[in-house]
Specification:
By secondary structure, this protein is an alpha/beta fold. It has one domain: Rossmann fold. The chain starts with a helix and ends in a 14-residue tail after the last helix. The protein binds adenosine-5'-triphosphate and magnesium ion. The site of adenosine-5'-triphosphate (ATP) has 11 residues, from strand 2 and helix 2.
Length: 296
């Protein structure tokens, strides 16, 4: 039995693996405008294999938009995305489908189907993209659920499990087909600090033990410093910073400093408007509390 399973497993593998020796992802002159707002303005970068990249930046700066372009879920106005050396923006359906097999995605909501058990959710992409035997799929699903520490919850329905468990189940589904790249859109949003640590460790382990390239959108500063090999910060449609967590910590760029310190004042002006509104409504935070008591 183990023998036949091994043959099937090797058929399931391979297709999701990388072929080129070059960058895993190359984004070239990517531009996207919604209505008259330029969200991505001629962005270019390359990501190497087996590393954790964090994409950071203030709310609305275009992180999720960039992710949607990288996974081919939305077309850019101009520019190119190369996955494993293949220009997915120009590719035909078959080439796009091949490229699709190379990555998994963990969306912010985890996006599990409520009518299916955790195990059935994880099995879904394998059933959709392969013709493997049920016994093989069951084995692959069990492996993936064990990897994310969800072996005991296989038969539970999504509404029976916590937010952190949903994230882990979503992660098991994202890696179901052994992808070379995993994209995460805010994997830690809404989780307690311990669960954030659990997800961070999983991302690190998947990257180091399975050689996966991880692209993680996150606002969590502790996570960025824990998991990133490199951080890329977006602002005003541009990449304004790229570097190691150490370089991020030492950066003198006002935008970076404001972001990592969470200052309401600074070049990132959406929070500033909120700060001004707050000041108008509640008085200046700089005044002693006794002076701030009155209105006007
Ligand atoms: N389909 C769309 N149609 C119109 N505008 C859009 C669309 N998608 C995104 N936008 C706009 O593009 C900008 C970037 O949005 P995006 O969701 O990429 O930001 P983000 O950096 O992921 O923000 P957050 O941290 O809040 O998730 C925002 O101003 C948003 O309103
Ligand atoms: Mg987003």
């Amino acid at each position: 039995m183990a023998g036949s399973t091994n043959i099937d497993m090797s058929r399931a593998r391979g297709e999701g693996q990388l072929r080129s020796q070059g960058p895993v992802i190359k984004v070239e002159h990517l531009t996207k405008t919604y209505d008259d707002k330029v969200v991505l303005d001629d962005i270019s970068f390359e990501l190497a294999r087996g590393r954790v990249y964090v994409i950071m930046g203030p709310s609305g700066c275009g992180k999720s938009t960039l992710l949607r372009m990288m996974i081919g879920a939305e077309a850019a106005d101009a520019g190119h995305v190369y996955l494993d050396g293949v220009d997915t923006t120009l590719a035909d359906k078959k080439t796009q489908e091949e490229a699709r097999r190379k990555f998994g995605v963990l969306f912010q909501s985890a996006a599990l189907l409520n009518g299916l058990t955790v195990a059935e959710n994880v099995a879904l992409p394998i059933r959709q993209h392969t013709d493997l035997l049920k016994s093989t799929i069951d084995l692959m699903v069990r492996l993936k659920l064990e990897l994310v520490g969800m072996g005991d919850a296989a038969e539970k329905f999504p509404y029976e499990i916590s937010g952190g468990m949903k994230k882990r189940a979503g992660l098991a589904r994202a890696i179901a087909l052994d992808p070379a790249i995993v994209f995460y859109d805010e994997p830690s949003a809404g989780l307690d600090p311990v669960m954030v640590g659990v997800i961070d460790k999983l991302i690190k382990d998947l990257t180091s033990k399975l050689g996966i390239t991880s692209v993680v959108i996150t606002h969590e500063m502790p996570s960025i410093f824990r998991i990133a090999d490199e951080a890329i910060m977006l602002f005003g449609g541009k990449v304004v910073f790229r570097g190691s967590p150490q370089e991020l910590r030492q950066s003198r760029l006002p935008i970076v400093r404001q972001f990592i310190n969470g200052d309401p004042e600074g070049p990132i002006n959406a929070p500033r408007q909120l700060a001004e509104l707050s000041e108008r409504l509640f008085g200046s935070a700089k005044k002693p509390a006794i002076d701030g008591g009155g209105t006007g």
